[in-house]
Design a protein that fits this description.
heterodimer, A: mainly alpha, B: 45 residues, mainly alpha, 0% strand, rod-shaped
Chain lengths: 131, 45
C-alpha cells in the first residue's frame, strides 16, 4: 500500500474513497436526524413551510460540504505523509462532525443577536440540528 | 491539480455556506414565528 500520494490517479482514487466514506457517514447522520428524531411538522402552514425548507437546506448544506471534506483529508495525507487510509478515516470523522456544529453555533449567535435567548438551555432540543 | 483542488474546495465551501445560511434563516424565522405565536395563544386561553 502506498504511503504517499504522488500520482494524480492515486490522488483521485483516495479522493473518491474519502468522498464515498464521508458521504456514507453524512447520509446516515442526515437520515437519523431528519427521519427519526425530527418530530412532527408544525400544524401552521407558514411554520410548516419554514420547517420543510430548513430541513431541505440543511441536507443540501451537508451534502455540498462533502467534496471539501474529501479534499481536506487527501491534502492532509499528501502534505503530512500520512497513510491514505488515515485520510479516509479523517474524511469520515469530518462527515461525522459535519456542519451542524457550525449551524448550531450560527443559530445561537442569531438568537443572541435578536434577543431570543431566555437563559441557558431554554431552546434545548429545538436546535437547527434537530431539523 | 492544485488549481482544480482549490476550485473544488472553494465551490464546495461556498455552496455549503450558502445552504447553511438559508437553513439558519429559516430556523430563525421559525423561532420568531413560534416566539410571536406563543403570547397570542396564551391570550386566547
Amino acid at each position: 500500500m502506498p504511503t504517499e500520494i504522488n500520482h494524480w490517479r492515486d490522488f483521485f482514487f483516495w479522493w473518491a474513497a474519502s468522498l464515498f466514506a464521508s458521504t456514507v457517514v453524512v447520509v446516515a447522520r442526515l437520515g437519523l436526524k431528519l427521519y427519526t428524531s425530527a418530530g412532527d411538522p408544525p400544524a401552521d402552514p407558514v411554520m410548516e413551510a419554514h420547517w420543510a425548507r430548513r430541513r431541505r437546506w440543511l441536507a443540501i448544506g451537508e451534502l455540498s460540504a462533502l467534496p471539501s471534506f474529501a479534499t481536506l483529508s487527501v491534502v492532509l495525507v499528501s502534505y503530512y505523509k500520512l497513510d491514505p487510509v488515515a485520510g479516509v478515516l479523517l474524511a469520515m470523522g469530518q462527515g461525522f462532525i459535519g456542519f451542524p456544529l457550525l449551524l448550531d453555533g450560527a443559530a445561537w449567535l442569531f438568537r443572541k443577536r435578536i434577543g431570543m435567548i431566555q437563559g441557558a438551555g431554554a431552546q434545548a432540543g429545538d436546535g437547527a440540528s434537530n431539523a | 491539480m492544485r488549481d482544480f483542488l482549490i476550485i473544488i474546495t472553494a465551490i464546495s465551501v461556498l455552496a455549503a455556506g450558502f445552504a447553511l445560511a438559508r437553513a439558519v434563516r429559516h430556523h430563525v424565522r421559525l423561532q420568531c414565528l413560534r416566539h410571536h405565536s406563543a403570547p397570542s395563544a396564551r391570550q386566547d386561553r
